[in-house]
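Data availability (excerpt). The following record was deposited with the supplementary files.
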Amino acid sequence: MRMRYTIAGLGFLYVTLPTQPYVPWVPTRDHVIDKIFRIAKLGKNDVFYDLGCGDGRVAIEAAKRYGVKSVCIEIRKDLVEKARKRVREEGLEDLVEIIHGNFFEIPLREATVVYMYLLTSVNNMLKPKLKRELRVGTRIITLDFEIPGWSPVHVDGNGTWQGTIYLYVRGVSDIHDQT
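Predicted structure:
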């Protein structure tokens, strides 16, 4: 998004504002991935989406372990390239799709499971999109950061870094949310 500002006597200044909030990439630790899959109860018919996938480690593991179609959405080009390289090295091109883009702009309708390791503020911004695009029954897993106004159906953890996993279900967790 470009904004035009007038500076007295100097003309115009154009500023490009980000269309997606900045979230630092912090890799999900391996033992946490195990818990995420256990809580998500992944099955062979699931379609797993990872929003802000970084190097693709979680979605790649979902495809390897469960044979599920996995979709990674990442805005940083360097991480997209790392993820694509990992997919090639693992021979998972038929199961894992890496999308270089803004997850606010990419459709999520195919997802049956969504994983997000974002910030609470970003989770809050995603709520309207999740409600609009995800089917009732879609499982949403967040690591460390809740979705404000939604009620998790399961919480696993102790509140430490990468220690709390929240499970939400579209149509259940969001039923009382008015946003």
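Summary of structural features: Residues 20-169 form a domain with the Rossmann fold fold (CATH 3.40.50.150).
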